[in-house]
């Protein structure tokens, strides 16, 4: 078992998370849950590895010790980085669902009601079917979202991690802005972002920074591919530093040479939408109401532009392929869940300007008792190189 300092959080934080999960399990009549998303494994135990493309799960029984089933190579992460006492690793040439089934039998769960995250990226259909076929006396239920329900509201300790991530984001973003200029390649800008972000303390982020210049800034999720900027050009940047797997994303826009009026108009409406949404965000307000505020302002203030996406998405723990938690909660028309204190979001009322691309001036925010606050202390503007 690791020394106290090797855990990302104090043991009491993990104990609270598992206890809260067990309350949800009891309410659903589950004797155990099997979780396979790397975010959920990290949230419940502290376990992390980039090797999650191999089968790995944590099993949390209602009233017995949790255990993990991972690839043998990855199992060394369990005593090194988690509080979990029991591991049942599998060799590369074995069927991991056989090992998992045997462990469930060992724990006396083979006749119980077991929750599976059936929407998980990393628990494939044939693996789920293989496990179910090996435990004919067990009953399986879809428990997708059971851990995400806990993750969407952060503890104070989690927000401290995100504040540390935000400092690394700021360092990377400022380096990218300073690197932008005529005759500079996207690779040069990306290199400066990474150098500054990592020097400031970031770990490997869940997604690469987005660095798109010129026409490439109008293409969704475009990032560096060696393009060299022109004397009158446009640079779109989106950066998220990472601290103990927690992320804090930010978008900013840079123009090289004179800023076109269309970009200035986009900047104005983005800032108006940002101010209005931050003033409106507070506990009890439905997420969809914030989305409507942003869309109405953008539609009225700049009818020739288009809001490029949702107004905000939940953020926190990130593993590839995403630094966001938008599948848990996003500020869009369809999500009417009321906001709660300590929810955290990437607030992104950004726009696509025809002929130019995206204008992004965004914030990572935390909902407070009476409103919200940004995790950043960074200028909100379109920069000029």
UniProtKB/TrEMBL annotation:
InterPro entries: Creatin/AminoP/Spt16_N, Creatinase/aminopeptidase-like, Creatinase_N, Pept_M24, Peptidase_M24B. Residues 17-153 form the Creatinase N-terminal domain. Pfam families: Creatinase_N, Peptidase_M24. Residues 160-369 form the Peptidase M24 domain. Gene3D superfamilies: Creatinase/methionine aminopeptidase superfamily, Creatinase/prolidase N-terminal domain. It comes from the Bacteria. PANTHER family: AMINOPEPTIDASE (PTHR46112), AMINOPEPTIDASE YPDF (PTHR46112:SF3). This is Xaa-Pro peptidase family protein.
